[in-house]
Write a structure and sequence with these properties.
alpha+beta; DNA polymerase, domain 1; hpI Integrase, Chain A; 3 domains; three-stranded antiparallel sheet; elongated
Length: about 400
């Protein structure tokens, strides 16, 4: 039998109607039935049964699912994220899951609603984080700190992606995250250095192992991982201008270091300014001395431009920490290695270089990303355009007055 309706007489004497349907077998081979009651009329139960039978015919029927949210998320990590995402992305997702699972982990997956998610997001905004410097409770433990709206958006992004897969796997009928209203995120503009400030930063690093890395970052706008994966084979310093081919990126995860493709998945070739070529030639001469000292123990097979004294990969986090320390030494608070990438794009746009050219140089997947990130540079250009128009019109008016 595909399905049927039935009548129940409640203890109060009232009549209630319901339906049942064979939902087939699950992945473990267990047969399931779907029951629903509480209809006041048989016609209502018949209509609901017909709708469910149509869903079964269309392949849209969602069988009862005993999974908790925590069980599903772990299955999603194992069967989907681990296969489709980079290790670094999976690592970030697990950190985000740590905010949400203590609050909804025991809730059955099919009971997760938009209301429940929004309630949890509000809790995270009030006391979802941890802050060791926060006031302590009577037990001596730090009091929970508010979680930023930006982080809550990231948590929602994780849940939205995971629950979307749950819909595709037919564990749930709709994605409850679709209906969530999220807290507003205040736009945060990355700080860009002008030419003088860039010079201060580089001067603070002069004479250190970080100096050539910072120079190339400032001269090309390349990402940290791209610089640390760069090989001498991808550089041609003998042509004018010098050329650099960016094809890989070094990523640091809890499991160690790994080389992957660039963020956009595409390689790009960049002309190098003469300043960068000079610094790289000097750096290569210094690196050759390390090669001589380490001899056969030097990792010549990696052919890295920026490496530890023994030729091994540098740890990206250590490079960033050193860059931030040198920036503070130069009086540039809140500046780091990535700031030089942002500054490179801003300086080029302010100097009148075309948006498409800057986008290709930075390795953005499309021009729209460049336009969104560097809108501040366009604002200055617009102001300059207004001043230019004003000066032109003022001159025309003055000339008109002279003629009269």
């Amino acid at each position: 039998m595909k399905g049927c309706t039935f009548k129940r007489i409640l203890p109060s004497g009232k009549i209630s109607w319901g339906y049942s349907i064979d939902a087939g077998k699950d992945e473990a081979g267990q047969r399931h039935q779907i029951f629903k009651s509480g209809f006041t009329r048989q016609s209502d139960a018949d209509t609901a049964l017909a709708q469910v039978l149509q869903e079964k015919t269309d392949g849209l029927l969602v069988r009862p699912n005993p999974r908790t949210s925590a069980q599903f998320i772990e299955e999603w990590f194992r069967e989907h994220a681990a296969q489709c995402c980079t290790p670094k992305t999976v690592e970030c997702y697990r950190q985000l899951a740590g905010y949400i699972l203590p609050r909804i982990g025991n809730v059955p997956l099919q009971d997760v609603s938009a209301l429940l998610l929004e309630r949890v997001y509000n809790q995270l905004l009030q006391s979802g984080g941890s802050n060791r410097r926060a006031p302590k409770s009577a037990t001596g433990k730090p009091l929970p700190a508010p979680l930023s709206a930006r982080t809550v958006h990231h948590v929602h992004g994780l849940l939205h992606a995971a629950l979307g897969v749950a819909v595709r796997w037919k564990f749930i009928k709709v994605n409850p995250a679709d209906a969530c209203e999220l807290p507003k995120v205040q736009p945060r503009e990355a700080r860009a250095l002008d030419a003088a400030q860039t010079t201060w930063f580089l001067d603070a690093a002069r004479g250190t192992w970080l100096y050539p890395i910072l120079v190339l970052a400032a001269a090309t706008g390349s990402r940290r991982g791209e610089l640390l994966a760069l090989t001498w084979a991808n550089l041609d310093l003998e042509v004018v201008p010098g050329l650099m081919r960016v094809s890989h990126s070094l990523e640091q995860t809890a499991g160690g270091l790994r080389v992957k493709s660039t963020k956009s998945g595409k390689a790009r070739t960049l002309p190098l300014p003469a300043i960068a070529v000079t610094v790289l030639k000097e750096h290569r001469a210094e690196q050759d001395e390390f090669r001589r000292q380490f001899g056969l123990d030097y990792r010549a097979d990696l052919d890295l431009v920026f490496a530890r004294p023994d030729g091994e990969y540098m740890k990206p986090d250590s490079v960033t920490a050193t860059a931030c320390r040198l920036a503070r030494k130069a009086g540039l608070k809140g500046i780091g290695l990535h700031s030089l990438r942002h500054s490179h794009g801003s300086q080029l746009l302010a100097a009148g270089v075309g948006l498409a050219t800057v986008s290709r140089r930075l390795g953005h997947s499309n021009v729209g990303i460049t336009a969104a990130v560097y809108s501040h540079a366009f604002t200055r250009d617009e102001l300059a355009a207004a001043d230019t128009w004003n000066a032109t019109m003022t001159q025309a008016i003055e000339q008109q007055h002279v003629r009269q």
